[in-house]
Design a protein that fits this description.
- Chains A, B, C: Pfam families: Glyco_hydro_42 (PF02449), Glyco_hydro_42C (PF08533), Glyco_hydro_42M (PF08532).
- Three copies of one chain form a homotrimer.
- Chain A has about 675 residues and is of the alpha/beta class.
- Chain A folds into three domains: about 300 residues, TIM Barrel; about 200 residues, Class I glutamine amidotransferase (GATase) domain (Rossmann fold), CATH 3.40.50; about 55 residues, Immunoglobulin-like (Sandwich), CATH 2.60.40.1180.
- The first copy, chain A, contains 17 helices and 31 strands.
- The first copy, chain A, has a ten-stranded mixed beta sheet with strand order 14-13-15-16-23-22-21-18-19-24. A nine-stranded parallel beta sheet of chain A has the order 5-4-3-2-1-11-8-7-6.
- The longest helix of chain A has 29 residues.
- Chains A and B meet through helix 2, helix 4 and strand 10 of A and helix 8 and strand 17 of B.
Chain lengths: ~675, ~675, ~675
Amino acid sequence: MREDPRLRYGGDYNPEQWPAQVWRDDVDLMRRARVNLVTVGVFAWSRLEPEPGRYTLDWLDEVLDLLHAADIQVVLATPTASPPPWFSLAHPDALPVTADGVRLHHGSRDTYCAAAPAYRAAAAGITGVLAARYATHPAVALWHVHNEYGTSCHCRHTEVAFRRWLAERHGDLDGLNDAWCTSFWSQHYTDWAQIGTPRATQYLPNPGQLLDFRRFWSDTLLAAYTEQRDLLRAANPRVPVTTNYVLGDWVPVDHARWAREVDLVAVDHYPSAVDIRAEQQSALGADLARGWARHGDPDGTGAWLLMETAPNLIYTPGGRMHTKEPGRLLRHALGHVARGSLGAMFFQWRAPRGGAERFHSALVPHAGADSRVYRETVRLGDALARLAEVRGTVEARIAVAVDAASSWALRHPGLPSPHLDHHEEVAAVHRALWRAGLSCDVTVGGDRLDRYALLVLPAHYLVDERTAEWVYAHVHGGGHLLATYLSGVADAHARVHLDGYPGALREVLGVRVEEFHPLADDDEAGLSDGGTARIWTETVRLTGARPVATYTGGPLAGQPAVTRHRFGAGTAWYLSTRPDDATYQRLVTRVAGHAGVGPVCPGAPAGVEAVRRRGPGASWLFLLNHTDRTQRVPADGVDLLTGATVVGGVDLPAGAVAVLREPTG
Amino acid sequence: MREDPRLRYGGDYNPEQWPAQVWRDDVDLMRRARVNLVTVGVFAWSRLEPEPGRYTLDWLDEVLDLLHAADIQVVLATPTASPPPWFSLAHPDALPVTADGVRLHHGSRDTYCAAAPAYRAAAAGITGVLAARYATHPAVALWHVHNEYGTSCHCRHTEVAFRRWLAERHGDLDGLNDAWCTSFWSQHYTDWAQIGTPRATQYLPNPGQLLDFRRFWSDTLLAAYTEQRDLLRAANPRVPVTTNYVLGDWVPVDHARWAREVDLVAVDHYPSAVDIRAEQQSALGADLARGWARHGDPDGTGAWLLMETAPNLIYTPGGRMHTKEPGRLLRHALGHVARGSLGAMFFQWRAPRGGAERFHSALVPHAGADSRVYRETVRLGDALARLAEVRGTVEARIAVAVDAASSWALRHPGLPSPHLDHHEEVAAVHRALWRAGLSCDVTVGGDRLDRYALLVLPAHYLVDERTAEWVYAHVHGGGHLLATYLSGVADAHARVHLDGYPGALREVLGVRVEEFHPLADDDEAGLSDGGTARIWTETVRLTGARPVATYTGGPLAGQPAVTRHRFGAGTAWYLSTRPDDATYQRLVTRVAGHAGVGPVCPGAPAGVEAVRRRGPGASWLFLLNHTDRTQRVPADGVDLLTGATVVGGVDLPAGAVAVLREPTG
Amino acid sequence: MREDPRLRYGGDYNPEQWPAQVWRDDVDLMRRARVNLVTVGVFAWSRLEPEPGRYTLDWLDEVLDLLHAADIQVVLATPTASPPPWFSLAHPDALPVTADGVRLHHGSRDTYCAAAPAYRAAAAGITGVLAARYATHPAVALWHVHNEYGTSCHCRHTEVAFRRWLAERHGDLDGLNDAWCTSFWSQHYTDWAQIGTPRATQYLPNPGQLLDFRRFWSDTLLAAYTEQRDLLRAANPRVPVTTNYVLGDWVPVDHARWAREVDLVAVDHYPSAVDIRAEQQSALGADLARGWARHGDPDGTGAWLLMETAPNLIYTPGGRMHTKEPGRLLRHALGHVARGSLGAMFFQWRAPRGGAERFHSALVPHAGADSRVYRETVRLGDALARLAEVRGTVEARIAVAVDAASSWALRHPGLPSPHLDHHEEVAAVHRALWRAGLSCDVTVGGDRLDRYALLVLPAHYLVDERTAEWVYAHVHGGGHLLATYLSGVADAHARVHLDGYPGALREVLGVRVEEFHPLADDDEAGLSDGGTARIWTETVRLTGARPVATYTGGPLAGQPAVTRHRFGAGTAWYLSTRPDDATYQRLVTRVAGHAGVGPVCPGAPAGVEAVRRRGPGASWLFLLNHTDRTQRVPADGVDLLTGATVVGGVDLPAGAVAVLREPTG
């Protein structure tokens, strides 16, 4: 993105939904709120190219000029996430097909197969036109390719592309048969033409096929992205290019791998909980984004951009839209900035009258500017302006490893429990760290670990030889490790390592797990340290490790639940179950303490989130009071939001935020 | 229907399921029970036309003659709700297709697409044959077209017809694009051929398309009906024509609009609750029927006919068949007569040995005539005979507005809560009125309101300019209004009115709603009058109205929940949530009292339903004791069922009914 | 199976999943565990015939020779349950189709339609090749055709075959129309071509069509089996042939009818409960197997073989794999032997690294031979060797009738309750007998009853004339009968018997049921003997019977719930509801006592299962302590497992088993 000392502030702006007279009101309202960046064109294809090859760009010219005149920069999107109706009509073979063979139809968004040649050609076409026209427009600060890549398909084009991808990955059919264990259930392939996508089948599907299908889609969507990126770069190499990640276990995208292909990691984040877990989810989302950014650019600061969040609502899993309490909009936004976002962008600027998302929240709601939400919008703009000096990275000495392939493999049928979930385990340990006041980074197998005292592997199911070496080297060299159940059980093809779980990590952990004992939904196991555990237990035999906590009651009474093992110069902890939040918090505090890592702000009360950004020669302490009462937090510095000088401690009102420039030296 | 002083009594009679020797037994049993009207032929197509163009009508001749000889009139049905197997085999293109593209097959009933030309031709064919043969048969009192119109389809024929309908509705593509807000998600259409039915798609569908698809089906089914009706009328204009409405939110039929095309509103009613709500549902069903009848014939008495109900069972949502308690059959039947039905008709006469509905209840059950059910059948026939003098309309000064389009629009995805339901809100306020002993009529936007003191709009989501004027005029002229949450939020295309909810009703209500706060499933809000509320709350700003009750606790504590606004000569109340039943009952009592409307039978105990029918020069008070103990009800008159004279009050035994001819003058 | 004095012990062995060097380890481990029988080749088609017509059998030669050399016999399977990928590619028309019309694809197992000619031809081909090569191999003790027959399909081949089958069953269309009651809903057929399989349809399907479709599939799968069997027999008539039954209400297989076509009934049994119900389910599974065996061979001992069970896990309905407690593997195995199994076979020998069932439990788990499971495997082998002398049949004087067609018919839509389930009712009364310590056999309508004092009909919904005569003769001749609700209600075409339920059994039971009163999910009815009842109640009128217990409270208060009727020389009890387990236990104790039948081991404490096998001149008492404490059981004999002599009683430790050779004379 173009250099700009300001924090970015704005959101998706869809002028095509409104008559031109509204545009000027929009710009006025944006200026009142200090908005300085808007995303334009995400779903505008049918307006930009109403018929194949006929382009109507004048309105976009006018919008960009208008924004530029108001000193508002533009994230210009390619509109390829929603091909126009004429495309669907002309290319029915490019419509997506489900595993059941149902052809999906136009009527929503994303009704295309990204492996269909006609789609790719049309996408390149409109991207080329936009690149030619706008690559040097002074308003354009960033290209935004597509929107929330995340679809898959089972059409004939997909089948062909999948086979080609498999041939490249496995070399020959022997390789594939071996990787997929096709000797089970007589699935041995003797011709590439016999291989299809994992369509609806009679009974349990092949796990290797499922896993490769996810990987194939991550690579295929990435190719669709890079195709556009390269066209845009060719038109003007100085404008950076990104795409907005959408989070969720269902997305067949390996975000870490994609991070190497974007100029800036941009993330859409929509929490699903309405209580304090919303803030914990936001913190995790931000840490993931920063981790991916660093994975893509190991020498960078991990800067990233929150590209979308809902200003004033939280979508709950049951389909209800929860309205955020007053002040929460600002607190969420500053929480993201605290964790490295270059600013705060929202979906969307102005609420539409109709369309599928007519009730999605907006900075300018249906009620218009005379509304609480727009007033909070203005207040946030003011706050962000006061934080312009903040830079640098988040201070953290703990790294939590995430692994897309593990999350996919743990969603397969035929596992010992229906409740296995890599992302849930990541979230559980991240929540424990958050509650303990411990900052962490997210990391990916193979990344540099030299800045970290403690590495955490939460249900890192797939561990191949290279990843195992990465873990062993960290511990052997003096690092600390906390691995949770199911880590290291299988190899990169999801084949179980034999001779005892957790195969690849047996030696470093000093344990050998012989049998799994997944718990029933309403069952819990007691722990000797007073806590309880859920979801999973197992028979841990010690082969060098010492017990730290044992199970109480049940078939495993008296047997180890948590263990610790000296390995080389380091220590490896193993957690064979999922403890309750309070127990988990105590455990990570203990493990981190053992590794010499303490909380960001010792003495901060529960419910106050503390994050430190450290830049060249300065540091800033973000304090977010998520509770409903005033909290005393021990801290020193100057609060950028109020200008007040804080000595020894600050009284943070309920729901309030302070950003302290800390004393140097 | 032919003039007949008697109340109608009978049900669906399917002689084609039985050998001819049973027919005579049937007629004997009918006569013993005073049955005077039966519906014949509903599902007899494959017996009437076993091969295309070959008709076997002799058996029907014989049945009609037999019935006529026994003075039993006939509702003669066209059998088009279940085309014979030969039709499905010959016209696979006329089989219905689901949104997923699954072609449904023969094997049940209603396996046709009403937009398929072959189906329409075949339906016209058999109807023409029946019209020619039976239009002047002396037994035929009423034509019954088809059965429970309510199917939809996504086949190619539908697609073509849908486009034609859209062109007529919207004029041109600009109109359609505007109505559907296709600027959202790049759905702008440039050719009619691009538009399909709302098939399975990738993500959220377009609300405008969904709403128009429902309207299209209502009109298409209506055209299928009128096609048959016109053939029947042409054969003998003196025999009236109807079709039996099936209730349920899933039915793509605007019953009010259809009421103008039938000669008599006929309704099938199947309650789903087994406790007192069954009786409340029956009362609502009857009031709906009467409201539609009056909408279709504003100068009439609102007479209608209960065409089907289950004699002795209630289908529960979980799939269980609840057996009605003794006496309930009669009480349900008289409850419908109290509310304007010309009689009581049941599905069906004799329980079949097999077929899909072999356990559906019947007046003659599997056990035969030596059974409690048949004995209750005889008893009901006796009771109905005693009520022959009852006529006139139901006395009511409250009108509750229903709106099919609102109910459809509130079922769309992307709304702020998954629990929005126009019919549920209608039922909730109707239940409150029922509990308060207040009679109401059902009305439809635009209907005459001069007889009503109070108009109720329950979640009347769609309010266009014309409907708004109708409401404003009522209140301005001195009427009272009670509108509940989500009324007036959107226009006829389901596009949100801007600048504050409830857009179209802001001025008359004197409020401006800025934000919605839908409640979680297990959440409730407190109300300052001691009640509780569920499902929905919102931020109500007063712009002229006064608060009547406020929220207690939660994010809206102290803010208005119920308001009242003087507007012109009238008063408009706004209810921003769904109160519990007792609170709602108190509220409607208060609002009605303010409007000068009191209960039908002041002093009637809870659980005793009171309805007054008023005809020329006389009135009848129906009293139904739904409780399990004797209840004292203050009333005067002569009980038509017992002949007893009542002065000052009557002791109604548990479950009993009294119908008092009230003293005149 | 070849004569062999030993109990059989082993499981599925899949050498094709492992390199040849592992085979020798396998044989060593088998010998250490005294394994003497393994099933080979079940899913090996793609290894045996990697391309159409090219056979690679050398590896199988080597495996059989290796096993034979180690004195391990082989159950040789035809691999037809999983055609290779080349087959699916070459014959897409042979892939199965769901009721929705979805074509299932290769990727699991069982992706074929058994009615497709190409599939049948290919299956016969590979079977012929195996027969030619191995029919006289000395290792081969038994042929195992296919695996767990249980698929169905709706493709065109199926449609054609279904029509052919219907023509044979019903003779002509009149017969079919009558059987299916096609007069309901205008389904009268006039041409065979009009009839299809019960595909997805608009509303409730035809029950006659559904029932015949199940019967058709049972016969079609049986034809697929016998085709292979005949080929195998032709190659060597001395090697017996079987197939492994899979239990479950969803399986369209009438196992009783199939029993006449197998040389040995072989059953796969997977309990679904984790508590004591697992043992009760196992007991029922074993009794079913023995009952089928005797139905197939009325003069035999009812010997059968447990072909598959999971060594160390229980699959729970929610998808969790429960790990069995120590000792339970052995107890389950001996429980099956107690009830007539010739041995204990498991799925599978060695846990695979990958494939869909990579976490299914195995005798040699992922952890290898140094594991609790393998040690229990060795212990079981030792125990089985000690029981070699046990033979003869199970002693039982109670017969419980099962009926596949009743179980299918009670799964149809349109029944009065969604909770009707023949198998559940069988299980409920079997559990009551189990708890009461009463042994029973399973029987099938028409089987010889001379050895039984008491016949039980649990929800035997379909009773035709022949079956009714069978019941009447039993009771008339002095036998006892216990029939539960819904028995005898319908005929073989699922058409309701008229004039009062339970039609076909009214006279013998001396009752007439007029109305059903199914209970709501959370409802229960009180019984006058202190118990409670669920699911179902009904209005029982006495027409000769005497009340034994009545309902208390509810609409049926004071009316009969359980009745008893003298009929001829016998007594018939009727149970109109489903009592709780304790009440049911008391009831069967009383009914059995009335019939002169007492428990196997009077005085055995609750939770100790006692089964007696009686052979020529000797008897063996199996005692299984399923509780978690030592139990004293009154008994005498020599414990074959320990060699200890028991006089007067034995102290069975928690979870332990004793098998006593009882004193003779």
